[in-house]
Specification:
CATH topology: Rossmann fold
Strand order of the largest sheet: 3-2-1-4-5-7-6
CATH class: Alpha Beta
GO molecular function, one term: S-adenosylmethionine-dependent methyltransferase activity
Protein name: Thiol methyltransferase 1A
Number of domains: 1
Distance between the termini: 40 Å
Structural class: alpha/beta
CATH architecture: 3-Layer(aba) Sandwich
Largest sheet: 7 strands, mixed
CATH superfamily: Vaccinia Virus protein VP39
Strand content: 15-25%
Pfam families: Methyltransf_11
Number of helices: 7
Keywords: Signal
Organism: Seriola lalandi dorsalis
Length: 242
């Protein structure tokens, strides 16, 4: 199956040549202006189908409030703000995303979630959040982001850096399927095209291995099957404690 997979991946890469050229000459940046509109609509459907999973995951957030304090949470790749509804009342939120064109949808989500205090929106990638001080947040949230960052290890190092001792990194990510499945085969074959549709998203990442190697003191991680297209059906969910 390996040779067959490589052959069809090559075929898809050839078919994607116009997209490769568009990306190489910088015209793909136009899509980054359109992508927030697409993601806003997709996120509504995703939240409906994953509502119970997200509610269960974020139920643990209050455990990381310092005694007598306010939960300070930073979300990497906040996108359109679809996680806001799951955060506990009084939570102070710092939003980061490398795409500044999400601001319109963030403003809308902020207005709909007045149980939170929004501190600021930082245009930054997960790999470089230098404007956020060391050990300054209780929780870092990252959902459907590690699939598209340039470096998962560096993003996790940054999350670890800005977390206070005892703070937690919450995650919900789609990952590569088991190598013995047809889902794995088609994830690799269709990846060249999916990359452009998902603004850099890669469905072939074994993200859990990076989390296991990130140096957290405790890792609670589960593999689940989400109710979506087979390409993004395999997910991991959980949190890691600094």
């Amino acid at each position: 199956m390996s040779l067959l997979m490589r052959f069809f991946t090559l075929v898809v890469n050839v078919l994607c040549l116009p997209l490769h050229v568009i990306h190489a000459v910088g015209l793909y940046e136009i899509y980054k202006r359109v992508f927030p509109i697409c993601l806003y609509r997709i996120s509504i459907t995703y939240n409906k189908k994953m509502h119970d999973k997200k509610k269960e995951l974020f139920r643990s957030l209050p455990e990381f409030i310092k005694p007598g304090g306010q939960l300070t949470l930073l979300e990497i790749g906040c996108g359109t703000g679809t996680n806001f509804e799951f955060y506990p009342p009084g939570c102070k939120v710092i939003c980061t995303d490398p795409n500044p064109h999400f601001q319109k949808y963030l403003d809308k989500s902020m207005g709909e979630n007045d149980h939170l205090t929004f501190e600021r929106f930082v245009v930054a990638s997960g790999e470089n959040m230098g404007s956020v001080e060391d050990g300054s947040v209780d929780v870092v949230v990252c959902t459907l982001v590690l699939c598209s960052v340039n470096s998962i290890p560096q993003t996790l190092r940054e999350a670890h850096r800005i977390l206070r001792p005892g703070g937690a990194f919450f995650f919900l990510e789609h990952v590569v399927a088991d190598a013995s499945t047809w889902a794995y085969f088609f994830q690799h074959v269709l990846q060249p095209a999916w990359y452009y549709f998902g603004d850099g998203c890669e469905v072939t990442r074994d993200t859990w291995k990076h989390l296991e190697a990130a140096g957290f003191s405790e890792l609670k991680l589960r593999h689940i099957q989400a109710p979506f297209l087979f390409l993004i059906k395999p997910h991991i969910v959980g949190y890691a404690v600094k």
